[in-house]
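re: the backbone from monday

yeah here it is again, tokenized this time
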């Protein structure tokens, strides 16, 4: 046992009860919450520490400095981790050995992620239209149109509430975006109409995009339609959300957020909402 297991049930026994979360993992989770980390950051850091524990099959608080260094070298030299993946691993382990199980280790001071300067894969307008056109279900279509027409990050779209839409000033209030900063965004008329028509199908008193009419969608559920769309079009998944989002934002700025600009990127099911 690694001493850092989660509360997930054993997949080999459907009748088994969920395992109790270890005290060490619980302590790290609480430390993350006290530091104000977001849910996705919390899950990512916990996952990285769990992977370290599984690598040695030992609780992470029982590992020596050299073992942690050897694990990181294994990721760099044998697993060929990309800088982005290394950054998450470094951050998760640094947090654990700084806050949850404090260690005065030199290795924690040496960790550096090499900077990469890469050019983005910019989608053409036709590729954006094809990706969004492959989305089948109404609720996914409404969510993705809102996400891309407003150039929102995934969590920002998932967290949209009814009170965030100001139809009088045609603005959207984004709460606690990246860096825990609020901001206002212009709201295209067609996006407002899509939101109104879609909300009338579930009438949730709080969320614009609830799951099964109750709480908000999960990130995994929200990304699945675009993943499937990328797979169907034979395009790389890595370029799906941010690349498409950036391209849509640029196009709508150039077109002055005009209604006609949005209509060019309607996908198969949206015309039911947009008259």
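seq for it, each position gets an aa:
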């Amino acid at each position: 046992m690694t001493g850092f297991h989660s509360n997930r049930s054993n997949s080999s026994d459907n009748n088994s009860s969920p395992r109790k979360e270890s005290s060490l993992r619980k302590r790290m989770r609480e430390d993350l919450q006290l530091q104000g980390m977001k849910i996705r950051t919390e899950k990512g850091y916990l996952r990285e520490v769990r992977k370290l524990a599984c690598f040695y099959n030992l609780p992470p608080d029982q590992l020596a400095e050299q073992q942690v260094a050897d694990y990181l070298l294994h990721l760099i030299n044998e697993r060929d981790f990309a800088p982005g993946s290394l950054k998450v691993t470094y951050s998760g382990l640094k947090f654990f050995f700084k806050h949850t199980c404090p260690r005065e280790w030199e290795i924690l001071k040496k960790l550096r992620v090499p900077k990469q300067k890469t050019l983005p894969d910019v989608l053409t307008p036709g590729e954006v239209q094809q990706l969004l056109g492959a989305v089948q279900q109404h609720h996914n279509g409404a969510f993705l149109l809102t996400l891309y027409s407003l150039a929102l990050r995934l969590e920002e779209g998932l967290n949209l509430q009814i009170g965030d839409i100001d139809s009088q000033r045609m603005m959207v209030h984004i709460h606690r975006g990246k860096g825990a900063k609020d901001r206002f965004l212009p709201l295209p008329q067609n996006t407002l109409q899509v939101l109104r028509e879609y909300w009338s199908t579930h009438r949730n008193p709080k969320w614009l995009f609830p799951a099964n009419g109750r709480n908000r969608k999960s990130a995994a559920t929200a990304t699945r339609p675009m993943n499937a769309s990328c797979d169907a079009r034979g395009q790389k998944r890595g370029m799906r959300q941010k690349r498409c989002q950036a391209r849509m934002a640029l196009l709508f700025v150039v077109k002055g957020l005009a209604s006609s600009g949005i209509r060019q990127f309607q996908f198969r099911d949206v015309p039911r909402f947009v008259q």
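Strands lie at 165-166, 171-174, 183-186. The chain is about 50% helix and 5% strand.
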